[in-house]
């Protein structure tokens, strides 16, 4: 397989290799994956990197929308490009100190799975806003406000448990994703939203925009059909040409660890006192899955700081791996950002990607295991080199047992991580 790129726009002049590396999907609908270096999903990053990338997306959108120049966007960009944790932290403090103000509070919608934290951190940049992320989770006692399809995805069905009273407000809707290739997912959600909560304008914010002319024409056609305008804003824009045949099955079997988990020192932490649980559920109420506004932003920040303070009392010598799990990315990322020491962050995922231990390839290693929170769903974790980390902090939204984490702990043992902290937030 090969993917040829033609870059047509890079507003902040961020080097292209800072955005992504490439890998092969195991998906007959789409054979390739832009493995983001900005998200903290497949590739380990300093936890400030994805928070700053989200900020840059919000800042550049604001500049385009208001036709103004923000004095601090260059400093935030330089901070993002740094590998020095103090510079990254200073850039994030600067970002937070200058919230963006729109005439009307935006309704920010982040797409699961990869953009849940991206959307949340975009929401953080606005003075007044509302945030909801879509989900693949079916919450028994709740009925989604709407459903839609993410057709190219490994798991296509998406749900949104938004507050109807919020969606009925005629406020700007910002759809946030890490990448749009055809843009069909955004069209699907706009159709669903417009059928129930019509308005005149929708915006799409994405780190990458690879739509061809035919895809942009589909946006124009929907604008005419519904009498609306759709604005698309991205940090990097261009076109791609894919050659080859997508993988329908793995070239090699994913590795399932059989290492002796007794070699790992396990410490469990119950952080449920810091975070609020959705009544009658094991889910957190303020994760973004059920909608939040600016009134709980400070409470989320305080909860993450308290959790980090407790972990900082532990001895975290050497390199520490922090793992979010599935859609649960933002809160683990924020906790990781307040940890002391040499900290790296990324997340487990539902998406199968072909590992290949080859220089320049994005997914050098991969493991599969049953999701501890739902054993019927297969999860994957990538790019944990043998011997790189001295300890790991694995963060779950729900409470999990040692038995449910058995295979994941065995993976840590095989990668020579001999101290693991298991965090339950609910």
Automatic annotation (TrEMBL):
All residue ranges annotated as the Orotate phosphoribosyltransferase-like domain in the record: 20-239
Domain of life, per lineage: Bacteria
TRSP domain mapped to chain residues: 287-411
Pfam families, per database record: PRTase_2, TRSP
UniProt name for this protein: Phosphoribosyltransferase
């Amino acid at each position: 397989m090969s993917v040829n790129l033609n870059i047509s726009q890079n507003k902040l002049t961020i080097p292209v290799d800072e955005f992504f590396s490439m890998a092969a999907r195991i998906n007959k609908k789409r054979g390739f994956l832009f493995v983001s270096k900005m998200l903290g999903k497949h590739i380990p990053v300093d936890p400030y990197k994805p928070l700053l990338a989200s900020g840059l997306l919000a800042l550049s959108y604001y500049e385009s929308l208001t036709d103004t120049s923000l004095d601090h966007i260059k400093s935030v960009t330089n901070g993002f490009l740094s590998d020095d944790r103090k510079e990254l932290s200073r850039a994030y403090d600067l970002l937070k100190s200058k919230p963006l103000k729109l005439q009307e509070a935006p309704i920010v919608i982040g797409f699961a799975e990869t953009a849940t934290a991206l959307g949340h951190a975009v929401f953080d940049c606005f003075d007044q806003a509302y945030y909801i992320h879509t989900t693949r989770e079916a919450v028994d006692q709740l009925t989604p406000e709407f459903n839609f399809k993410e057709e190219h995805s490994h798991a296509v069905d998406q749900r949104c448990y938004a507050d109807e009273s919020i969606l009925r407000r005629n406020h700007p809707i910002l759809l946030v994703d890490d990448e749009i290739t055809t843009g069909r997912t955004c069209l699907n959600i706009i159709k669903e939203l417009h059928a129930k909560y019509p308005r005149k304008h929708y915006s799409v914010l994405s780190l990458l925009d690879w739509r061809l002319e035919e895809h942009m024409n589909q946006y124009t056609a929907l604008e005419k059909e519904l009498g609306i305008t759709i604005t698309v804003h991205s940090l990097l824009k261009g076109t791609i040409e894919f050659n080859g045949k997508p993988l329908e099955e793995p070239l090699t079997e994913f590795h399932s660890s059989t290492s002796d988990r007794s070699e790992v020192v396990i410490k469990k932490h119950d952080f449920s006192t810091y975070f609020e649980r959705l009544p009658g559920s094991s889910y957190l109420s303020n994760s973004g899955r059920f909608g939040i506004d600016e009134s709980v932003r400070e409470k989320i920040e305080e909860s993450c700081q308290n959790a980090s303070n407790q972990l900082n009392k532990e001895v975290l010598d050497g390199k520490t791996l922090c793992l979010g799990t599935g859609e649960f990315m933002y809160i683990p990322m924020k906790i990781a950002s307040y940890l002391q020491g040499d900290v790296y962050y990324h997340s487990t995922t539902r998406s199968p990607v072909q590992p290949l231990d080859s220089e320049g390839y994005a997914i050098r290693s991969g493991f599969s295991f049953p999701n501890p929170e739902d054993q019927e769903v297969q999860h994957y974790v990538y790019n944990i080199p043998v011997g790189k980390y001295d300890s790991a902090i694995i963060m779950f939204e729900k409470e999990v047992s040692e038995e449910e984490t058995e295979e994941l702990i065995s993976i840590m043992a095989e990668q020579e991580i001999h101290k693991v902290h298991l965090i339950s937030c609910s």
